[in-house]
Each structure stands twice: as structure tokens, then as C-alpha cells.
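re: ur question from yesterday

yeah so i grabbed the chain u mentioned. its 386 aa long if i counted rite. heres the sequnce exactly as i have it in my notes:
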Amino acid sequence: MTTRLNHVRTWGPALGVVALIALTLTALALFGGNTLPDRTGPPIEELSVEQTTLTPGQIELTVRNTGADPVRVAQVFVNDAYVDFSGGDTAIERLGTEKLRLSYPWQSEQPYHVSILTSTGAVIEHEIHAAVATPQADSGFFALMTLLGTYVGIIPVVLGMLFLPTLRRIGSQGVRVLLAVTVGLLAFLAIDATLEGFELAEQAGGAFGGAALVVLGALLAFLGLSALDHRLSRGDTGGLRLALLIAIGIGLHNLGEGLAIGAAYAVGELALGVTLVVGFAIHNTTEGLAIVSPLTQRRPSIAKLLGLGIIAGAPAILGALIGGTVTNPELSSFLFGIGVGAIAQVIVQLVPAVRDKTGRLLDPATVGGATAGLVAMYLTGLLVTA
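ran it thru and got these C-alpha cells back, copy pasting raw so excuse formatting
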């Protein structure tokens, strides 16, 4: 009884404040607007084109209202020529979406400039750099994305893990250097994903935060992986736990990598072929090396090693499927941010293992190892064509 009374005394005032805030905000919403003057200028109309779908004789644009005021589409022009369109019959409210279907006999691989004219005369521009028929999400498409994700994700990561027997013979100093190489590899992945996430955020309308979504995704992933590490540390505190965290971090990064591949394929910008597969294979083989670097003192089973490889590589398949079917810069930015946060948390976990017996982190050997990791990821990244 006493405990319950203490809970009431502790939380009762807080609940009262929450109720007061709710009542105040409700009153402001109902009556506050009547006490303020009307806008002195014209409506602010903003539209963002989130997705372009091209089918024979038709261009479909998915637009979102990223401004403060409702938007009504009046006319649409393609290459300065008026075109018939359907959709947008009613005003698009803030953050609302609408599909505009333009009747236009577009030609493959030709550029097109689309101008959307609103009811107030504002013009929203959209570029189609090279028109390509949008792939249909059928069984063949899903099979192709699965195959691509396997080629660039699972296979190279597993191949990189085959270096484990060699790594076991390099000694304790060699292990420190190898872990420093891993830190360099992961640091490059984090930097690369951050830059790509911010680039995608610039393409977004900003209604959902733009670059802030990259930061939000990174923070959520960092905190989530920290909680997972705390839970895992109750059991295995050795290299297998660290290898699992590295695999998860790389897997979340490969989710964004697959997303970029699927999105490039959907708009016809992906060059399928040997160059793509070999480039990604060489680049991602280094990721497999990073996963097994903490396992030099352990002898995990083949099943566990394969499981780690699948955890790290299979998200590329999911990313390719999402990227090929959903063209959304906000979602892409958020997912890239998740990859950044996950890798950052893994680096935090690796740093203590890189220190020498005196606690020194940056000695010549570890600096050289981290530099080698950064350079290796940069050079192999030059082979990637997507």
C-alpha cells in the first residue's frame, strides 16, 4: 500500500502537467488561430516528385506536398508542350501524395523536362535524364534482384571469410594490426554511407527532415546495436560476439548498398554484367575479412561462419528489392543512416582490442593497419560501377 501511495505521489503531478499541456494545446488549436492575422503574402506551394514510373505512352509521377499550404495542379508540360493528365483533381494537403498520369508518347533513352504548373502559377520542375521503361515487380524481377544481392553481398563476404585459417597464424601483434585494418575498413564504409545518405537527402523535399533522417537513423542504429551488445555480453564475451556485431553492422551497410543497386536498375542506370559483379565481389571480400578478424583465437563451426556471412551479405538482397520497387529519398537516407550508426558502434567495440599492453592506441603498427584498411576500401571501391 505504501509503495502504491509513493508511486501516486511521484507520478501524479507529472500526469497533471501532461493533462494541462494537452488541454492548452487543444484550446490553441481550436481558438488560437482566430486571434492571429491572415497571411500577408501568396500561398507557399511546394511539390516534390518522389517516384517516376514509365510505361508505354504514359509517365506517372508520384508527388508529395512538402510545403505549408495545399497545392492544386493546374497544368503539366513535357518539354514545354502541354500534355493531358489525370490525377490531382483535388488540392493536395501538406505531406499528402498524389499520382499524376501524363499521356505522352515518350521515347526510350531520351531526356525529358517536366513542368508542373500549380493553380497560383508556381512551377515545379522535374528532370528525366534518360527515359527507360520501369521494370515490373514480377517473379522475374524479384529473381534478378535476389541474384544480384547474392552476387554482390553473400558470395564475396563468404569468400573473404576464407582467410580465417591464415589469420590464425599471425600472432598477437598481427591480430592487433588486423583489427586496426578492420577499423579502417569500417571507417571507410561509414564515411561512404554518410556521404551517400546526405546526397540522397538533398534529393528529398525536406518535409521529413532531409539530412536529419541520416542522423536519426545513425543514432537509432547505434543505440539499438549497443543494447544488443549489452544483451549478448551476458553470454559469449569472446570473439564470436564481436564477429556477430561486425556482421550485423556490415549487413545494415549492405542493405543501403543493395538499395542503391535496385534504385539504379529501376531507372536504367545499372550496367549489368561482369564488371559490376567482379567489382562488388572484390570490394566486399574485404568485409568478410573484417568479420573473421576477431575469431583468430576461436574455432567456430562451419554453420556459424556461414550464418555470419549470411547476416552480413543477405541484406543486400532486401535492399535491392526495396530500391527496385520503392523510390523514396527519405527512406533511402534513413536506411543509409542506420548503416552508418551500426558501423560506428562496431568501431567503438573494436577500439579496445586494438590497444597494446600499455593502453596505447595509435602506435606505428596500428596506424599502418588502419591506413591500409582505408586505402584498400578506397581502391576496391573504384572497381564498383553502381
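noticed a couple things. Residues 47-128 form a domain with the Immunoglobulin-like fold (CATH 2.60.40.10). also The chain has a mean pLDDT of 83.
anyway ttyl
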